[in-house]
Amino acid sequence: MPGISGDKIIASLKTNIAFEKVPMIVLSASDTGRQTALSCGAIDFIAKPYDIDNLLGVLNTYLHN
């Protein structure tokens, strides 16, 4: 995203009581941000290009928990 990184957005949202329990899954073109995203509060990380079945499986897991 231009101007701000996804991990900064997640960290900012997680400090807001309205979003602190919202599960966030990161989709990224780079696999290098996995640990950063998870440490900032994301519940999962999927690197692009992603397999649609894998993406749907991850979404299904978190929607049903």
From TrEMBL:
Domain of life of the source: Bacteria
Taxon lineage: Bacteria, Pseudomonadati, Bacteroidota, Sphingobacteriia, Sphingobacteriales
Annotated source species: Pedobacter jejuensis
Gene Ontology biological-process annotations: phosphorelay signal transduction system
One Pfam family of this chain: Response_reg
Protein name: Response regulator
Location of the Response regulatory domain: 1-63
